[in-house]
Amino acid sequence: MMLKLEAERISSSGRLVMWLRAEDKNGKKREIGGLCVRGSVVGGGGVRVINGRKVNGVVVGENKAVAGYLEREGAEEEALNAFKLGRFVEERFVYRQTFVIRSYEIGPDKTSTMETLMNLLQETALNHVMSSGLASDGFGATHEMSLRKLIWVVTRVNIQVDKYSSWGDVVEIDTWVAASGKNGMRRDWIIRDYSTKKTLTRATSNWVIMHRETRRLSKIPEQVRGEVMPFYLDRCVIFEADDDRTIDKLNDETAENIRSGLAPRWNDMDVNQHVNNVKYIGWILESVPMKVLEEYHLTSMTLEYRRECRQSHLLESLTSMKTSIAEDTDSDNSALRSTHLLRLQENKSEIVRARAQWCIKEQA
Fold first, then answer.
1. Which of 165, 188, 168 is nearest to 176 (CA)?
2. Which residue range or ranges hold the Acyl-ACP thioesterase-like C-terminal domain (predicted)?
3. One of 206, 297, 309, 340 is an active-site residue; which one?
4. Residue 226, pLDDT above cutoff 70
């Protein structure tokens, strides 16, 4: 009996699975099943055991296709980490991680949401720091930062979406960091479809350092700069012109919709004791008209974080919408642009300014 590797795919748990079929001497094929990459080569006799046991009573014997695949991936542990924790590529300047879109990460349209994408970006960034060996006890803080009670805080995020993934899709995320001015850091991401390698999303962000106790911004200490500089890659995924960076401020007169009484919950807080930056997206959308949410997709969003938000605060969400009709198109294909503001309900202090672009959904 001869075993043949027919295809490969990603399982629902995110592991790589190789499907084997057996072919007897008469050419009749029989499917054996899916084998996880957690295989091993035993001794010099060419016998392979998957997960330490036989498969359907058959010991998997010499198979050049399987052997070649394991060799290309760098053996068991590296292959496993590529799907569990990610791995470094491009001479360790780029960190790559793979995710399966779960059922609880999709919205009413049966596709992933902007919040899902932002959470995946954040997870990849934190795993990048952890895998680099720089992570200490802070939320993405390096060893030297922890010694000085410093943390990273995001000041700006720009995310552009070409296509949202569906439940069960596998995506591959690349991330890297670079300098941003004298005392900031930029982090970029690219999300691709794992199978086709087509780019689905691009995102860029800016970060500064804050003292964990005084909550005041700080210059980057030279010791911290020395930790992160070896990972810097001067590559921009989104170019932002200076005149594109300004986001208009809304007020009671210019906003078309205002939603008050938005209260952060305990589960909205992160380990640095302020609201996680992804949570603001949901509050921003609270003041977007329901008709827009039902008929349009978010294609891009820029968020400018202006101050922290704590659990004791009550927020107001303000939104202004306007139509933006592209040239050489009819009005049925018109896009929307929106401006947003999250502010404290008590004293009207700004928390987040944002703007977004929307594209009409395709009819089913």
1. 188
2. 254-358
3. 309
4. yes
